[in-house]
Amino acid sequence: MPRRLLFLTLTVALLLLGIGQSPPQARSRERAAAPATDPYEESDEACAIDAAMIAALQEQFQAGGVLADNWPPDALGGLVPPLRSVHDPYPTYDGLAFDPLAGRVIMSDENRHSMLVYDRTAGSASTAVTEPIQQIFGRRTQIGFVAGVEVDPVRQEFYTVNNDGGDKLVVFTYDQQGDVVPTRSLVTPHQSWDVALAPKRDEIAISVQQSNAISFFRRAASGHDAPVRTIRGLSTELHDPHGVFFDEQHNEIITANHGNWTQIRPYTSYDPLVTDVGEYKPGAFYLPSITFHRADANGDVAPLRVIQGSLTRLNWPMGLDLDAQRGEIAVANYGDDSILVFARGGGGDVQPTRVIRGPATEIVGPISVAIDAKNDEIWLANYGDHTALVFPRTAAGNVKPKRIIRNAPAKTPTCGFTNASAAAFDTKRDALLVPN
Amino acid sequence: MFARLANGNVAPIRTIEGQATNLSRTMHGLAYDAVNDEIIVPVALSGAILIFRGDAAGETPPIRVIQGTRTGLVRPQTIAVDAVNDEILTADPARRSVFVFDRTATGNVPPKRVITGPKTGLVDIVGVAVDPLRNRIVASSRKGNGATGLFVFDRLANGDVPPRAFIGGPKSKLAHFRQVAIDPATGNIFLAQQNTRMKREEAYVLDKPRENFKEEKDEEDGDDSARLDQMGFIAVYGPDDNGDIPPRAIIKGPGVRYAGAGGVALNPKKGELFAVGGNGFQTFLVPEFFKPFSRPPTTLQPGGR
Fold first, then answer.
1. Residue B179: phi, psi to the nearest 5?
2. Which of B123, B215, B223 sits opposite A269 (nearest CB)?
3. pTM, whole model, 2 decimals?
4. Domain B20-116 falls in which CATH fold?
């Protein structure tokens, strides 16, 4: 069976290329024990997984379907090995939440679909990989192309929401480890991005990009529980919402908006064509903004105030956090590799009160921030650099981070895209173009 | 942008991003116009089409933007460019339509032609490609429990017209696919299929829970691309293929397993195919895919819808 042999050879070869399903940090642990080894070398744990995978592939191979020898009949190609493969085998940090009670920092990993938990003192000036104290990874976790993270310090639970690849919010506890089923999960609207907790109201808020909406659920909602209310509509000024913070003290929902807007209509393969939308409103590009709505708002409700304009320096604002003591909002400003800090009560075209930005900061594609008021620190998750950074809480300007948390050895590149589903070849420059 | 010869864990050689670009972080289509050296991108979240210079980098504004009431666009998902006839094609699943604009159009302009209506069979259109030599438009479209596959139209089709050919059905194994591309020399049609499971009904209609929704129990639901029994593939068809037929050529198995390829790009000159999906891409050397197929398709069933 030469084709079958070829198939198995291909499988092993691909796994050795580092595109297998081994836990991301298994690689880092092995490197810590033997730093001179090839970074793509597999651990014993990974080899066991590989053996199981090969066995499963063999079974599928014999069972028919796409993998069967005789399908498609007489076709060219088949089990063709790739000439080249571009793939980042390491995690990329995305969402981030801080637990002041347990001193833990929880980050989501969009690249390898995992959750990584660190002690709040983690990180150093070292170039080595930082060991997490807890990691959730594997098919049973239901973690897809994950985005925002929230933590419930009292119940010692953390939440994360899939932006794509399974429209769910999944909840895990501090004592879970590895490939585990979430403690509970909640089906969410497609393109949900961030989640924020309101412990006193016992609610969670979820931002939904394509619907330009904030949906509120009971904190313990699960399965197909419906939202208890939704802020959505032309008056809301929600435009491609991303980061969201539930400010219970002031009864406000704070949202970072990218500025994209379209009069979204159902579009999937099960939905009928919808034409009865009233006046057709064309798509629009608005300026990015921070919106403040009443936290108990429902429906098409205007914001209480909006931070927006050229002075704000907002540029693809992503996650945000509130420093309640200082009355400040910190924003991960992806578009210009910075952290912007605004006065909480501000509105209009206002300058940030502080900006952390510059080559010394090592900020590259920031996605989320969290304030550690107890220890006077601010955390940042970098999407573009396999790092998270810790700065003094009141840092400003082009300052070095206090500590760096790494999920890959220093200077490890990253492809910079996730969940791509299109490409084009640039014949003039001999290059492949990929949209994120 | 990645160098053609990129291999391993590498950073892009160039990136277009930031507020001034008007791009979003959610884009499902891309086309390159080699004749005019332009990059064309649909922005689903802003109902817009952006055109950039071919060498654009960093936070660079587009040189043209198609957006506004006259465009009819709501959620343009996928894009193609016809440099021979100077046209840009986009498909908008929220409008169940393929729109054709003048290539140099900018601002609030109406489309030249729109393929739309019940006769077209188009529903969730996720890919579009154009063959200017054979005067054809190919759209990949999915319909829950309905006609799911490749819809081939005359290039000048306009209004509510049936496709001249349709590739789909159980023998095709087409189900959850995305981008379609055409080799201009042979007219061969390439399709990236993420997995072989028909897309399930979503629990929500936008931000509203779907009425009478029933969940299909599947503990391992989520990242469909990794299901061993539902692996995706890259399929290739001849320009005149029609019916419920298997591909003429295929890339399947572990080579495309992890990508769950949703995107496909071609470099006919070198006989290379790029399969893009998930968080990476693979390059395959398949020069035989860029030659005319010499035999008739297997189990040809015209009109197999």
1. -70, 145
2. B123
3. 0.91
4. Neuraminidase (2.120.10)
